[in-house]
Structure formats: structure tokens, C-alpha cells
Amino acid sequence: MPQAIRFHRTGGPEVLQWEAVDVAAPGPGEARVRHHAVGLNYIDTYHRSGLYPVPLPSGIGLEGAGVVEAVGEGVTDLSAGDRVAYAGGALGAYAEVRNIAADRLVKLPAALSFEQGAAMMLQGLTAQYLLRRTYRVQAGDTILIHAAAGGVGLIVCQWAKALGATVIGTVGSDEKAALARAHGCDHPIVYTREKFAERVREITGGAGVPVVYDSIGADTFMDSLACLRPLGTMVLFGAASGPVPPFDIGLLARMGSLFLTRPTLFTYTAGREDLLAMAAELFAVVAGGQVKIEVNQRFALADAAAAHGALEGRRTTGSTILLP
């Protein structure tokens, strides 16, 4: 029988178990995919910890790449042998084989590897909607991205630079600052020794930035608001340090009629046509060399607990994949 990572209770990485699972024939609208690589993302830790509750017991993981083995009734745009990748749908990517709704799958171009596919779908599609839809970055903009040396951060830095933006990014160490700079970050700020809100004001001559992309949450939220120019956009797309506590929204008015949004990838990709268009744009910038997908850590799928520990311990850079 194929194996998969599952968890029966919420908690730390130790709750992740390597178990045999039964994978039935794909049902109507489904495809069976044999994974060649699986993506690791911070949202996986939210599901495992219970921050984002899911029914238990549960599989885990939202991103993978592999080959279609079979399709169910009604699936007409995929067939056995197709190379595919995905981000989203039901939990369960941490598996050797799985069934998934076929409308969540996109064909992976021959120019891109399975490792690239598994490493870039969730993070790359996130970067796409951040830069091209939530706030559409234009040449000449100066932006702030937190966790600039992380998976989303490195993609955002490269893509924003290709769009003609000046990129400011926060990082946790000099090593991560060097990595971010090598990927298009003009002004890496080491937040462990510098106050990033003050540095952003210095870099922008006191003007502030039109947009902040913040996946950290509680620890950075108020200072992120302080980085914005009037009518600026605060994009809170994660909560690595915990959720932002309630606050008086009148503060947004007092700080310059600011905009605040809490987007999710799954809203932006809910429509099949949106998913395909976003993926096509992502694949184009990766295949064209404007964005390089950095797979800096690889773990055996069975060692997912160790991978979670490394991710939560901030011992990773770029993308991490799990190999069945």
C-alpha cells in the first residue's frame, strides 16, 4: 500500500505519522497523481498545530508535482502520463499517491522539473497575486517584503525587481541578507539589530512605501503600518509570529487613509480560469529566467516532522521539498 503522512491530534511536529493508506480509483472529477516531489509551506504548520482547525484524523499538505496515473469520469483535459503540479484543494499532498480534484491541477511545462513544480506552486502563485493583483507593482515603486529570504520572499524580490521596483526586505541574519540581495533585494534590513520602520523611512526619504507584504503577523503588524505612505496598502498574507490582535480601525484613518487586506491564495485561485492564467504567468517568468526557484532544503517525505522543525525554527531559506 502507498504511504502518507497523517496526524490524529494537533500539536508539534511529533504528531506527524508515516502511515499506510488506501487510495481508491479516482472518482468523478478526480485524478490520481503519483508524486515526484511535495512542497513544504508554513500553512502546513498551521493545520498541524490547530491554528487552522481541520477534521481529524487528517492528511496534510497542499502542494505537489507528479504524474497522472488515472482520471475519473468527466475529466477531459487531463490523461494518464501528464506531468502536473498543484497548490490547493483538499489536504493530503504529503503522500506517495493521492486522488485530487482534477480542476486543481495544471500541466507542468517540460522546461520545468518536478522539484521546481512542487517548490513554486503555492509560493509562486502567492507571489503572483501579491505583485500583480492585490497591489499591482509598477516600475518605480518601492516595496517592503518581510521574510525576504524565505520561499515567497525570494520569488517576490526577483519578480518585483524584474518589474522595475526597488525592493526593501527584512531578514533575520547577515547570511539571509546576502541571499536576499543576490535575488534582487536592494535594501535588506536585519531586523534583529535594526528597527525596520525607521530604516524604511530613511531609505524612502521619509515618504514611506505604497505597499507592505507581511507574512509575519503579530510581531511586525504595527511597524508595517508605520512604513506606509498615505493611501498605502497593508497586505497581511500570513501570521508566522501569531495572529494580529484586534485593533481600532480608526488607526488606518489617522495614519493616512491606509488600506488593509488579508488575502488568501485559495480565494484568488478559486476559479479554474484564474488558476490557469496565474500559473501561466508564473511559469513564464520562471522559464524565462526572471525568477529562479531556489530549492535549498530536501527531506524524505517520511521525515516531514524534521522538515517542520526546521521551518518553524527559521533554519530554512528559499523553498523546501519533500521527496517520496
UniProtKB/TrEMBL annotation:
Database matches in CDD domains: QOR2
The UniProt record lists the keyword NADP: yes
Pfam family, one: ADH_N
Protein name in the entry: Quinone oxidoreductase
GO CC term (a single one): cytosol
GO terms of molecular function: mRNA 3'-UTR AU-rich region binding; NADPH binding; quinone reductase (NADPH) activity; zinc ion binding
Gene3D superfamilies xref list: Medium-chain alcohol dehydrogenases, catalytic domain, NAD(P)-binding Rossmann-like Domain
Taxon lineage: Bacteria, Pseudomonadati, Pseudomonadota, Betaproteobacteria, Rhodocyclales
Family matches, as InterPro entries: ADH-like_C, ADH-like_N, ER, GroES-like_sf, NAD(P)-bd_dom_sf, QOR-like, Quin_OxRdtase/zeta-crystal_CS
Organism in which the protein naturally occurs: Pseudothauera lacus
Keyword Transmembrane helix attributed: no
Region forming the signal peptide: none
Ranges where the Enoyl reductase (ER) domain occurs: 11-322
